[in-house]
Amino acid sequence: MSEYSGYSLILSFTHFYKCVYFYRPEFKLMVNLILFGPPGSGKGTQAEKLIERYRLVHISTGDLLRAEIAAQSPLGQEAKSFMDSGRLVPDEVVIGMISAKLDSNPKAGGFIFDGFPRTTAQAEALDKLLNAKKFSITRVLSLQVSEPELIKRLLNRGKTSNRSDDRDEGIVRNRLDEYRRKTMPVADYYDRQRKLSDIEGEGRIEEIFNRLTAAIDGAGN
Ligand code: ADP
Question: What is the Å distance from ligand 1's center to 175 Cα?
Fold first, then answer.
């Protein structure tokens, strides 16, 4: 009898330590999202709302690149000509930037990637970077917006924003071409991992936000 209770005592101790060992709140509660969709699909607008709801660190490669250009850094100088003509910036430039951003936020409860990954090579690099930190992507939210609506939204934004790539219809069309050729295959990459949710991206901002949170909260439960 005493032998038995000694054994169960050991068992419950190991169980206790296992629980403590495996209880890593930063893993369990971490939500890492990718907002995916063509230029003008509302990624920035929805990212702002999602950050607040889920307390995420926002990583927008477009914003990071524009900040590099404003600071006239060598990276910014390299990126500028690509951005001005509506082409994608080379993968290694963008991946390096993401890696630095992940390292500089060690306490983040989760990340939201906006405008990244935009090529399959970037998606593979992101998986590697996250794996090394024992993180993973929770959900990829793909905003669906028709092309005429995208062009309308971008040219409208160009009237009020200081983004020169939104003012010229030729550049806008280049960006949509780049999206179709290089970025759309990224959706298949995450679909194969069963992480992709298509979200109707037209309608009221609040409506779209509700569709996004429903997809996030329903994921993996
Ligand atoms: P939008 O989604 O409206 O095009 P962004 O701010 O996300 O706006 O991107 C602006 C430009 O920055 C892109 O046209 C591209 O040149 C560059 N860029 C942003 N993110 C990436 C990325 N992940 N890979 C390559 N280029 C990028």
Answer: 8
Task: Say which CATH number the domain at 134 has.
Answer: 3.40.50.300
One-letter-per-residue 3-state SS of 183-198: HHHHHHHHHHCCCEEE
- Catalytic residue at 153? no
> Is 43 known to be catalytic?
yes
pLDDT of 153 above 70: yes
Q: What is the pLDDT of residue 26?
A: 46
Of the candidates 133, 51, 52, 142, the residue with the CA atom closest to the CA atom of residue 98:
133
Tokens of 190: 């995450």
> Per residue in 175-214, pLDDT tens?
999 999 999 999 999 999 999 999 999 999 999 999 999 9
Q: Which pTM value belongs to this model?
A: 0.86
Taking CA atoms only, the protein residue closest to ligand 1 atom 2 is: 39
In a domain, 112, yes or no: yes
Domain that holds residue 161: 27-211
* Residue whose pair of structure tokens reads 């690509």 in the numeric block: 82
What distance in angstroms lies between residue 21's CA and the mean position of ligand 1's atoms? 41
Residue found under tokens 């307390």: 55
Tell me which of 49, 80, 163, 167 is the catalytic residue. Answer: 163
Within 6 A (CB) of ligand 1 lie: 39-40, 61-62, 65, 82-83, 86-89, 94, 115-116, 118, 122, 165, 175
Into how many domains does the chain fold? 1
